[in-house]
Amino acid sequence: NAGVMQNPRHLVRRRGQEARLRCSPMKGHSHVYWYRQLPEEGLKFMVYLQKENIIDESGMPKERFSAEFPKEGPSILRIQQVVRGDSAAYFCASSPQQGHSSTGNTIYFGEGSWLTVV
Amino acid sequence: GESVGLHLPTLSVQEGDNSIINCAYSNSASDYFIWYKQESGKGPQFIIDIRSNMDKRQGQRVTVLLNKTVKHLSLQIAATQPGDSAVYFCAVFLYNQGGKLIFGQGTELSVKP
Question: I need a labelling partner for A95 at 20 to 30 A (CA). Which of A24, A68, B66, B101 fits?
Answer without folding.
Answer: B66
